[in-house]
């Protein structure tokens, strides 16, 4: 299954990595690689994220000790076609609304 990032999610990930890079380029690279590896799991296991209680059609997945992604699975008829990552957020931020 294909995984696509929304422009908002890409921007949030890159901003976070840039912020970390100010302190350590190595940590920023490790952070980015960790996120990408976790997201790659979604291609084969799209339901590993738990249902987001506020909006059950969305799922949330902890991809780093302090960061989550919120995503949904787009269907075409009976076939699941694509996973769309809607946002990337720090866990301590207020709840997310699609």
Please tag this protein with its features.
five-stranded mixed β-sheet, 35% strand, globular, YaeB-like fold, alpha+beta, 98 residues, 5 strands, 2 helices
Describe the structure.
This protein has 98 residues and is of the alpha+beta class. The chain has a single domain, classed as 2-Layer Sandwich (YaeB-like fold), CATH 3.30.2310.20. It has helices at 7-21, 25-44; strands at 2-5, 50-51, 59-64, 67-76, 79-90. It has a five-stranded mixed beta sheet. The protein is globular.
Strand count, sense and barrel status of the largest sheet are: 5 strands, mixed
Structural class: alpha+beta
Which stretches of 5+ consecutive residues score pLDDT under 50? none
Mean pLDDT: 87
Order of helices and strands: EHHEEEE
Cα distance spanning the termini: 22 Å
Strand proportion, as a percent range, falls in 25-35%
Write the CATH homologous superfamily: RelE-like
- Could you tell me the CATH topology label: YaeB-like fold
Bin the helical content. 25-40%
What is the approximate shape?
globular
Query: How many domains make up the 3D coordinates?
Result: 1
Count helical runs: 2
Q: How many whole angstroms does the radius of gyration measure?
A: 14 Å
Compute the number of strand runs.
5
* CATH C-level class: Alpha Beta
Order of strands side by side in the largest beta sheet?
1-5-4-3-2
Please state the second-level CATH architecture: 2-Layer Sandwich
